[in-house]
Amino acid sequence: QINILIVYSVQSFFNSSRSNQTLFSALNEEKVVLFLHLLGIDTNGHAHRPNSREYKENIKKVDEGVKEIASMIDNFYGNDGKTAFILTSDHGMTDWGTHGAGHPSETLTPLIVWGAGVNYPQKVASQKFEDNFLKEWKLENLKRLDVNQADVAPLMASLIGVPFPLNSVGTLPLEYLNNSAHFKAESMFTNAVQIVEQFKVKMSQKKETTLSFLFTPFKPLSESEQINYLKKARLYIQQQKYNEAISLCKTLINLALEGLSYYHTYDRLFLGLSIAMSFVGWTTYVILVIIKTHTDLTKAVQTNNKESTVLFYGFAFVGMIIAFFLLIQACPWTYYIYCLLPVPVWYAVVKELPVIQDLATNLLSLNVVQSVGFIFICTLGIEILVFSFFYRSALTLGLFVFAGWPVITQLWVQAKTNASIWTLLCMLLAIFPLMPVVGREPNIPLVIATGLLTLMISCFSLACLFKNKKYRNNEDLKVYFYQMLSIALSTYVVSSTHDSLKNKQGLPVLNQVISWMTLVSSSVLPLLSPTFLFQRLLSILLSLMSTYLLLSTGYEALFPLVLSGLMFVWINMEQEALQHYGLSLKPKLAVFNFTCATDITQFRQLHLDDVRRSYFFVFFIVTAFFGTGNIASVNSFDPASVYCFLTVFSPFMMGSLLLLKVVIPFVLVSCAFEAIQVTTQLSSKSLLLLVLVISDIMALHFFFLVKDYGSWLDIGTSISHYVLVMSLTIFMMLMNGLAQLLTTHRFQLPRRTKHHS
């Protein structure tokens, strides 16, 4: 229907020009470009996937539509043979209906050119390419000419006889042109001049904003070299040595493009070092604040006002010198932020010099081997987190190490049951990062099985939690009954919707209503449950699982269930760890109430084991990020995940639902850590500071890994990783606030009053 509409629109457009003199005159001018965007294939591919029958039928309709439109254009211009046609695409698509990564199916696009000024296909005996497209299309005997997408712009400009676009970095693909050798040589010479002019402008801009004695030009293409290349190319053309001229111009273009990249990244090292200094200074300062206010490692030291004043003026003088240096170079305002930020940060660090000296004295008294071992373990742990952003299997390695934690720390001796379950669940969770990214192979029976398994676990858990009549309440049981009913309905909706869509019957209205009602109720029902620790956490799990099932298409449905099981055991293991290190008495978790959380005056000072506890939290958050996919790339998500809610293509609504799916595992981890925080008397402020140190060290890694070249996925993912880690602390604060809301607040429903005669 879309393609029929496009053909009709094009026909109407040309017909309307018959009665519109202005439009008719514009269409009959020289060098006219008609642009037609055929969006139907992209939408169809996302909805039905490229290997579907619907997509292949759509391709046929588009092919017929292109033929009709080309015929219309030729007829309008009286078949004068002066029209050139270019058919191409901006991207490809994977077999599961996404794009944005670096796979050939996404980055290789067709380019078909025919008409006026275009060369005829050239026959060849054989040609070698890494892919099998020529064989699949039965075009092995026709020469294939691959170009970069940027080369299409100069090709279009050459075909209609207009100057190359000012900021184009494409190279004219001469093989596509049906013209004389002289024309091709002149065109390539013009292409070289156009790109060299860009290089010269970029060089002059950088020269104007850099002190002369500091400026380092791009040596392979100095001004004399530019003149020599252009003179030599012009001489070749005059001598009718066109091939030599073309070859020389291509060399000049490549050098100019290298020079453009050189000047574009000219200040990268300078700015990178400034930002790195800010990172190191800020991380050092946060560590000093933690040690000073949340540990007993240092003593209170009186500050010398005279020394502080001298220090302040010294750093202020350094800041003025940097600002003056930037001012005389006419640098952008952003440079002032990057270069001046290290000054106040390092002033704050140096101001704590007595604390540093006191800390150094204490550290020197410690065992050197233990200190080096602790630093090595911390470094290794952070590197595993960094690697997990690129290789999900690194999470598997980390979870295997976690599985052995009770054995390494001797916790196995005092809590064999909990330690065994912890090890088992760590091993189960370690399987998920090894699985393929969700969405590629849907498995609805597994989602249904997960729903049934959740119901069985919830029945067993309720039986255990409410076996004591003292904590049993009929109103509370009703809440859990509604949540279990919601799980059952979600399981039914997933199965029913999948069958309906498979039979091309669309999304049933009843299923859609149930899905949205489940989504709304899942945020309210936990607040009606008791605030006893395990009862409230079970209620949160059941509510979130009902929504997560509706958003699942395969094995990922099991992920929050296994993760939650591990979180429940983690809460118990942390109590065993506290008792093991003698930090506090072991409270009875079964009767612990979130509303009676630890008072602020009872918060204890940080212990070395709290660094491990904070690292566990960050690791589980990262596992929630990458356990079933890569949230840094939209390429990881399958639109089929939201089909229980809507099937009409709506990017914002679909994106919101997919974001909710991503957030649910975070909420489960955050609620579990909220329980650990209050039961271990750990200050949330000290926790966030420890997380801040970990995230800053990771962010420094990702800052130097940011890319500005490669596929969309390479560039976008590198930036996304950096932004994700930078915002990790803010995200933790939001999750901490949400966890407090979900665990401590309770809505009391009005109850009927019983009257007795």
TrEMBL record:
Pathway: Glycolipid biosynthesis; glycosylphosphatidylinositol-anchor biosynthesis. It holds the Pfam family Phosphodiest. It comes from Nestor notabilis. Belongs to the PIGG/PIGN/PIGO family. PIGN subfamily. The chain crosses the membrane at residues 269-290, 310-327, 333-350, 362-387, 393-413, 420-438, 444-467, 509-528, 557-573, 614-632, 652-675, 687-707, 719-742. Ethanolamine phosphate transferase involved in glycosylphosphatidylinositol-anchor biosynthesis. Transfers ethanolamine phosphate to the first alpha-1,4-linked mannose of the glycosylphosphatidylinositol precursor of GPI-anchor. The keyword Manganese does not apply. The keyword Endoplasmic reticulum applies. Its EC number is 2.-.-.-. GO terms for biological process: GPI anchor biosynthetic process. It is found in: Endoplasmic reticulum membrane. This is GPI ethanolamine phosphate transferase 1. SUPFAM superfamilies: Alkaline phosphatase-like. Keywords: Endoplasmic reticulum, GPI-anchor biosynthesis, Membrane, Transferase, Transmembrane, Transmembrane helix. One of its GO terms (molecular function) is mannose-ethanolamine phosphotransferase activity. It is a multi-pass membrane protein. It comes from the Eukaryota. GO terms for cellular component: endoplasmic reticulum membrane. PANTHER family: GPI ETHANOLAMINE PHOSPHATE TRANSFERASE 1 (PTHR12250:SF0), PHOSPHATIDYLINOSITOL GLYCAN, CLASS N (PTHR12250). Residues 258-711 form the GPI ethanolamine phosphate transferase 1 C-terminal domain.
